[in-house]
């Protein structure tokens, strides 16, 4: 399979354990054109060789959860339009929902 026919993959996960689960797929990340979408936290989680984008963390118990989801959606749309991924592999959670919805709206998997 040549580079042009390979799908571009967005690997998306919130911080902590979800991110650790996602990083178990690092061999797959190396095989395909891909990038990582994760939450911005106090500590910097970054794969050494992958493009990494950050969105703010969202806590569903905060009163501003709806506005943060919209802000993350705008950020995710910008990332989507820049990277043009074909597939998303997501281990969760709330901060990743906007990118998953955008992928679905654009007919991606």
Could you tell me the mean pLDDT? 89
Shape: globular
Q: What is the count of distinct domains?
A: 1
Strand order of the largest sheet: 3-2-1-4
Q: End-to-end span in angstroms?
A: 19 Å
- Which band does the percent of strand residues land in? 15-25%
Count of helical segments?
Answer: 4
Describe what you observe in this structure.
- This protein has one domain (13-38, 51-105).
- 38% of the residues lie in helices and 20% in strands.
- Strands 3-2-1-4 form a four-stranded parallel beta sheet, with helices on both faces.
- The protein has helices spanning 17-23, 26-31, 65-83, 97-105, and strands at residues 9-13, 34-40, 51-56, 87-90.
- α3 (65-83) packs across α4 (97-105).
- The chain has 109 residues and is α/β, with parallel strands linked by helices.
